[in-house]
Design a protein that fits this description.
By secondary structure, this protein is an alpha/beta fold. Helices cover 36% and strands 19% of the residues. Bound molecules: D-mannonic acid (CS2) and magnesium ion (MG). InterPro entries: D-mannonate_dehydratase-like, DgoD-like, Enolase-like_C_sf, Enolase-like_N, Enolase_C-like, Mandel_Rmase/mucon_lact_enz_CS, Mandelate_racemase_C, Mandelate_racemase_N_dom.
Length: 403
Amino acid sequence: MRITDARVVVCSPGRNYVTLVVETEDGLTGVGDATLNGRELAVASYLRDHVCPLLVGRDARRIEDTWQYLYRGAYWRRGPVTMTAIAAVDVALWDLLGQVAGMPVHQLLGGAARDGVMVYGHASGTTLDDLSRDVEAHLAQGYKAIRVQAAVPGIDKTYGVPPGDGLLYEPASGEVPQEDVWETTAYLDFAPTLLAHVRAEFGYGLHVLHDVHHRLTPIEAGRLGRALEPYRPFWIEDPTPAEDQAAFRLIRSHTTTPLAVGEVFNSIWDCQQLITERLIDYIRTSVTHAGGITHLRRIFALADLYGVRSGSHGPGDLSPVAMAAALHVDLSIPNFGIQEYMGHRSPAEEVFRTSYSFADGFMHPGEEPGLGVTFDEEAAARYPYAPKYLPVNRRLDGSMHDW
Ligand code: CS2
Ligand code: MG
């Protein structure tokens, strides 16, 4: 099962996606997602210039060997660009193996360990009343778990909140990053009001999540976690910039609110301390940014040893290929926790046709061989890439802050 071609397609059906297409001598096509929001072309070049030429002629079934060949063989290890490129190859090879075996990828991973994958959706509002309407809409669709974000009074643009009623939340825009302003005190005062509002309106029969998006210091995060305890959040996410793993000892010593971290991590080494010291409850690494199905499974297996559950990142800035791959992993691992599901905006569905489904708050990857995603390259060509960047944050005095 030799690889005969590997090519990279960058397209923008609603937002930018980088897709790796791998073909074999048997006429099969596997796909992998290589999207790194705001740095798309760096991964496209890594693949095109340095990886695709090495793939041609290799046996597509040797997934572990190919992973090790690309990881160890680069000499330069880890990092979002390298690990996203390796992930795309890895996912495409799992897709091919499933097609050859005539089985969905989750069967190759040990089979379904549950009937469906609980997902959480995003509700937000410029006011708490808007937020309530969005939570209601999610409940009406069957969601059992909902992330809640609302505009912080006194802050111009809040992470996770659309700019106005009826508008979509889309952080990436423009040829240069948009500049937002951040003020920690206003946020810390408001966050308990936000959670209290949701519990007062909707009770305790749904899972409520909240994303802090890397903005606090450890002691501020400890204070927030403690203040939110009465509202029993499912988790608070990314309370502090997560590369400082030891900081979580301090947060942990102040609160029992569950902590979720890891969407910006790209290897097991980034979360080794967080997991082995039991400093977090959910690990949010994704298939695309953490080295593919092969490496993500290794992270989740380590997490399982320490009672940490999975909670993979699933934003709209990862392509439907990533969503499908995540669902296959989620369905098969013992320590699945929850999966983020932002969905994809039109016309992504025209370019990526998927077999996964949503019903009553749970998703399933479907039973098609491989990942169950068809990538339409002709449709992709109708949506050319345009550069877009995530915003940056400045504090009131003009200094840079984490976004
Ligand atoms: C977010 C992401 O989904 C999340 O939890 O933190 O939307 C994140 O901001 C984007 O994926 C960045 O590209
Ligand atoms: Mg997040």
